[in-house]
Amino acid sequence: MNEILQFFIALPLVGFIISLLLPEKKETLISRVAFGTVFIQLVALVVFIIFWVFNGAAHLNLNEITLLKTDHYEFFIDFYFDKISAVYLFIGALLTSMITTYSRYYLHREKGYKRFFNTVLFFFFGYNLAILSGNFETLFIGWEIIGISSFLLIAFYRERYLPVKNAFKVFSIYRIGDIGMILAMWASHHLFHENITFMKMNNFELMSEHLQSHSFIGAFIALSLVLAAAAKSAQIPFSSWLPRAMEGPTPSSAIFYGSLSVHLGVFLMLRTFPFWEHQTSIRIAIGLMGLTTSIMAAYMAKVQSSVKSQVAYSSISQIGLIFIEVALGFETLALFHFAGNAFLRTYQLLVSPSVVSYMIREQFYNFQPKERGIKNTFPKRIEYALYVWSLKEFNLENFMAIVLWKPLKTLGKSLDFLNLKRLILVFIPTFVIGILLYEFKSIVPTQIVSVLPEVFAFIGLLFVFKSFSERKSPFIAWMLIVLNHFWISLAIVFNEKIDYSELVVYLSGIIVAGFVGYASLLYLKKMEEKVSLNQYLGHVYEHPKFAFFFLLAALGVTGFPITTTFIGEDLIFSHIESHQVMLAFFIASSFIVSGIAGIRIYTRLFLGPHIKTYHEIPYRSS
Question: Is 448 exposed, middle or buried (0-12, 13-18, 19+ CB in 10 A)?
């Protein structure tokens, strides 16, 4: 039965590719391909689960293909199936089939009809890949696909200001959570000295043997996983992104932020439960996070003025309770709770437009004001204070801005003196000095050599900070992202003897995507007079195919799994020693911020209200 697992990955991928090739005007054919793909998956999955249960419901593991193997490292795609996979796959296929049916009529004659179904099938492929993943690397591929799908669907109305702005905010939070995944993969390589599979993670003796002598690194991995799960499932302090994700079409809000995508953090915790179940402090931390989120989100849900925001915070509150159940070890209860919450929130979001009209009608014809006075008792004053804080969302947005975004922008703006010419003049001699230090490191004092990796990695991190805060030239922002990867390469070569073929794997995707992206910017500047990052330019209005082309280049240069750089990033981390936590943090942060900066360039240049005013444009929504 192991070989059948490939089918559940291949079918969504084939459906996605077919949908890309269909003409945009063939609405019926597009929707039938999308529904047919998901429905066949659902039927096949039900039959497979029935046979699997009758055959004893044993855990299935399939080592699919090895993409890269060196003397000390192996990157392979691995699939794993158990009851957690069965529940998540079934709920995903059932709800996605319902959404594709609903969307066929809901989005009839919508301008982005084909684009919507393309993105949903791309998400469905990533979702199945993540759920069936048998190791962290395979999971991270699906994780990244789901992240970019979320961005594209929130920004579905890409000629409006607010959907585009909120899509970028959500993508940024997703990327912050990715730091946790990257650091967890790095630390697990050092703990187990291999690319650990989830099948082996269920081996109690193996886990106990490694964690007894490495309790600190075990806690580090667990906390990194909690960070990734909290960001993906909108737990405190990342809760404010979920209501902002409701800017997309109602069907995408239902499938992503009501049912499937928002529960992936829970899935990560369930999948890695055998690893951290005996770390009591981690279980307490997860339980407290879930409890705090549940209470705060419940209050925030009560003061929302829109139906979709209210449903979003209600969903966050329930997911907080699911985290508590996972922390307590109630795996089966958590799966039932996930299924119930997913079905309920999908239903609520799909009927939300009708509910609004019903409520307005009810108030218009049967309005009866309720007699309520403001009570001045001490418990009531506490309750009123909580509601006031809830209206401000407990200042979570301001907290994220102060802790994350303002420091990034401040550091970046300190490098405003760098124009394109100065950038090259600073980079080339400094990089040459770094190469010379590497070539003659035998005569350089050991104390200096030991800190050079962190120094060069930090310089690269400063480059992406500058790219993130750049407001004028997209050329500077783009070059800073590309050059950051060269600083990372220079930092790694000081660690140990690294084969040059490994650097080729890492840098080849960067060089190709970087060249394509820069050429695209030159071509765009030739076509359009205004090419700046100071506002949203909306050039997708007149250049939709060119915008898609540049998006691929931006994804390639930021390590999305479409080039060898994605494998190269994991390969780079295999050369970071277990004691070099700061180096790992600097490089992981560089990967994450460069991803945000790359998508920011695409967003500013191509999305939002079109800068030209000779045609009707949508203004900022409230």
Answer: exposed
Three-class SS of residue 410? Answer: helix
CA neighbours within 13 Å on the CB side: how many for 61?
A: 12
8 Å CB contact between 521 and 475: yes
Which pair of structure tokens corresponds to residue 17?
């590719």
| CA 237 – CA 44 distance, rounded (Å) | 39
- Cα separation of 76 and 5, whole Å? 16
Which pLDDT score is estimated for 374? 60
What is the extent of the structural domain holding 505?
Answer: 414-606
418 lies in the same domain as 340: no
- The pair phi, psi for residue 192, each rounded to 5°, is -100, -10
Cis amide leading into 243 (omega within 30): no
Residues 423 and 340 in one domain: no
Report the run of H or E that residue 78 belongs to, with start and end: strand 74-81
Residue 23 neighbours by CB distance under 10 Å: 9
Dihedral sign computed on CA atoms, order 147, 149, 154, 160: positive
Number of domains in the chain: 2
CB 132 within 8 A of CB 79: yes
pTM over 0.85: yes
DSSP per-residue letters across 218-248 = HHHHHHHHHHHHHHHTT-TTSTTHHHHGGGS
Give me Rg for the CA atoms of the chain: 25
**Separation CA 202–CA 608 (nearest Å):** 47
Gap between the Cα atoms of 324 and 143, Å rounded: 23
DSSP 8-class letter at 306: S
| 202-249 residue pLDDT tens | 877 777 777 777 778 888 888 999 999 998 888 888 888 888 888 878
Q: Are residues 349 and 421 in the same domain?
A: no
Q: Are residues 489 and 579 in the same domain?
A: yes
| Residue 400 maps to a domain | no
Q: Give the residue from 359, 378, 397 where a domain finishes.
A: 359
DSSP class of residue 258 equals I
Contact 70, 502 (CB under 8 A): yes
Distance CA 56, CA 37 (A): 29
Rounded to whole angstroms, the Cα distance separating 331 from 345 reads: 21
In a domain, 390, yes or no: no
Which of 333, 359, 385 represents a domain boundary (last residue)?
359
Mean pLDDT in residue range 102-109: 82
Q: Are residues 172 and 317 in the same domain?
A: yes
Buried b (16+ CB within 10 A) or exposed e, 152-164: bbbbbbbbbbebb
Together in a domain, 58 and 201: yes
Q: List the alpha helices (DSSP H) in 392-419.
A: 396-400, 406-413
Distance in angstroms (rounded) separating the CA atoms of residues 337 and 128: 20
Q: Report how far apart the first and last C-alpha atoms of the chain are (Å, whole number).
A: 53
CB-count burial class (<10 Å; 0-12, 13-18, 19+) for 67:
middle
At residue 622 the predicted structure's pLDDT band, cuts being 50, 70 and 90, is very low
- What percentage of the chain reaches a pLDDT higher than 90? 10
Taking each helix axis from N to C end, the angle separating 446-469 and 474-493, rounded to the nearest 10 degrees, works out to 160
Domain-located, residue 582: yes
Can you read off the two tokens belonging to residue 124?
């469905």
Residue 322 lies in a domain: yes
Residue 175 sits in the same domain as residue 26: yes
Assess whether 66 and 173 both reside in one domain: yes
Half-sphere exposure of 83 (CA within 13 A, CB side): 11
